[in-house]
Amino acid sequence: MPKKVIYIAGLGLIGSSLALAIKRGQPDYEILAYNRSQESRDIALKEGMVHAVTDDFAAFAPLADVIILALPIQQTLDFLEVLSQLELKDKVLITDAGSTKAQIVAEAEACLQDRPVRFVGGHPMAGSHKSGAIAADVTLFENAYYIFSPSSLTQPGTIEEMKEVLVGLKARFIELEAGEHDLVTSQISHFPHILASSLMEQAGHYRKDHPMTQHFAAGGFRDMTRIAESEPGMWTSILLTNRAAILERMEDFKNRLDQVAQLLQRGDEEAIWQFFNHGRELRKAMEIHKRAGVDSFYDIFINVPDEEDAILGILELLRGTSIVNIRINEENREDINGILQITFKNREDLEKSAKIVRENTKYQVFLD
Amino acid sequence: MPKKVIYIAGLGLIGSSLALAIKRGQPDYEILAYNRSQESRDIALKEGMVHAVTDDFAAFAPLADVIILALPIQQTLDFLEVLSQLELKDKVLITDAGSTKAQIVAEAEACLQDRPVRFVGGHPMAGSHKSGAIAADVTLFENAYYIFSPSSLTQPGTIEEMKEVLVGLKARFIELEAGEHDLVTSQISHFPHILASSLMEQAGHYRKDHPMTQHFAAGGFRDMTRIAESEPGMWTSILLTNRAAILERMEDFKNRLDQVAQLLQRGDEEAIWQFFNHGRELRKAMEIHKRAGVDSFYDIFINVPDEEDAILGILELLRGTSIVNIRINEENREDINGILQITFKNREDLEKSAKIVRENTKYQVFLD
Asked: Which part of the chain is the Prephenate/arogenate dehydrogenase domain (chains A, B) (predicted)?
């Protein structure tokens, strides 16, 4: 296929990982990159992630067959405006990597409608606790969902062409209308972040009058507030570009809390039990219990002592078995010590491993 | 010290683990147990956890120096009434293991005030995903908080005597007034359970009109709804016996959501950023980041390939290093594959381990 020039704007975790993954799938492509700060530019160049870098976004844009805006949402909106002023290659393919889609797609349609360009919104659903080109990871998108949101500037074949450019990501490509994308993510990502931060704020305030709040926070509270530690800037711009959907979820949630409060006020034991049981059934049924290529979780729980190399000893017994996940102290209502949970890919590995651990250790072994 | 007769009512996870741990600390004590179902009675007897068992609660009560009610909350309330009708040893020490304290302490005071008995409420803050005597674990309470809530029937020395009985638990004993216990736990445990189940319910309902909700639920949503899988019966009785405190937290939380909604409605970027940033600072400051005997988390993040024995290989490199925790795919905003997080007890182990992994593997290594 024809060699292409790919221009990646932004060498953060996403942009630099895109560079590595595109190169893996399309080694002949020429990859150019823009980044504001010098550090990530130098790393990308030194590590051979890209062929050339610039701190002047406009400089490389006219050279590109594909322009990928891997930038914060507000900057993505600004750069779409900049692109509308530049002389670009005919039929240049422009996309982005923002966490919200409706506003970006609308802005692209408004800025670029009269230009001979193509645009499709993009959202690679992958992230990390680290950032910058230093964290670049060619495997970042493997088995992750990569959402394409078409625009009026998306032509037949546009998305297929993007998939070809991004084939090295080994991602799960999905097409989803921008508005629907923002509704779904408001429910499973954006609003839950507000919940987590609000719960953390509430507990932080409560602690002033009830100091033991600080000490008793256990596994459940830890789980529920974990994402409150996310980077505030990104989430601020996500909220601001998906307001209506998030506000609707907040209002709906308040009504749900009111319903539970009413059950509690009138002490409706049966209805409260049904509430908890329904939530339990729903979660058990959700894809939460699935992983890429894994139909469901097969978990073994091993009561390990707090000793050096206890985990190592178990993994040595299970050598050659593929492990999906391993953790201690999760999945529990309250803090407990030393429950090692190992997740296998299938029932056979689970049962074989349980047998091995039982026969070779004195540890308690539970299956789920 | 004088040999004591301990009577444990209920051989669930808590009761049977209490039996093992009391025996570990006070091997001379005689331990009697009540359980309704035969299965756990047989296991406790066969495994030598207890000296004798009964399915008639009243039968052994008169023999006991210490009576521990390790039962569901409602049954605990009922058995306090039963105890008030029995001829017990003079100064018998009665306690419980319920997850809420005010109602149980009040019931004990009401039932037993005219009897020559002593009562102190108890709450061992430990749990597991498993139940019954089959799951009995002598280490279950190690380093866990064990709360004593005094009553009008708690005399000088009563709590000290309980600590002596329970010395084998190696728990962190704390004294906390019953009402305060219920306030603190409403914030860090009871209300968060309502949040988790409500979020799960909301997403389950949303999914009907927005099917991708099912597929995009990622790490953050998983974390926030994990406890929605807890056993409904226990949480129903917890809610019903801590209504006022939980209802107050729910009302307070709705007000917090309203405040965030107002910021969002008027697009107050600075205030939204402050909201997220404050929650982030609060969580980082909370004891969440501490474990028993561990001042703080020392985490290494290793980008491991999805290969058999990849984790084993790393632990072999780190042989002899004490590992506090190990997990994959946690602490991330969205699903990513293969970030192995290992938590060490101190900075030295962390840096030594990072050096070893960097020198002996090609994996990316991040420190936090």
From this structure: 3-294
